[in-house]
Structures are given as structure tokens and as C-alpha cells.
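Deliverable D5.2: sample structural annotation.
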Amino acid sequence: QVQLVEFGGGLVQAGGSLRLSCAASGRTFSDYVMGWFRQAPGKEREFVARITWNGEITSYADSVKGRFTISRDSAKNTVYLQMNSLKPEDTAVYYCAAKRSLYGSYEHWGQGTQVTVSS
């Protein structure tokens, strides 16, 4: 089992920036592919970004490409999501997730952190 806790959500004006953090505990952090997802009110949860075990490969949803950056710090067992040029449509609850297999389902989820972007 791995436990995930997100930090860093809040209220920001359009065009601003936020950095989300997700602290992992319980198992070897490097065993897991880490991802960020988000869910806006009335919408399904959607993929935002993913980073592989050693941080070499990242992937992003088209809607955030060029604005968001995912990274991980193995020494701190933490994955980050740097969000720049935020838009009102980025408003959502953001979730951190972990999985061991690149092509499998995410096995562990955090509780989520609210990001609200005002226009």
C-alpha cells in the first residue's frame, strides 16, 4: 500500500500559477508511476499528467501541454505539478495517483485538493 496526500491547492487569478505537491508514504516511491488527474463540477475525472518511475518520461493532456509540468523528487517521495498560465477552465479538484505498471490502472489515490481559477 502507498498513501498519497496532496497539498498546494487554492484560489488564483487567471494567468497565475500554483504548484501542487503529492507526498507518498508506505512503499518504495520509485516503484510507482505517478499521475495527476482532475475533476471539475459535473464532469468526469480526467487525466492531466504522468511521470515514469525514474522521471525520464512525462506525458500530458493536450489541454495543459506547455502550461503544466510534472516532476518528482525521490529523496522527498514527492511528485509535483507546476501549473502556469492558469485558466478558469482549470478549476477542479486535483488528485494524485500511483500505479506500478505503466499500462495498468492506477491503484492508489489521494484525497484531492481544490484549485479554483477566477477570471
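Annotation notes: The chain has a mean pLDDT of 95. DSSP finds no helices and eleven strands in the chain.
The annotation will be released with the project's public dataset once the embargo ends.
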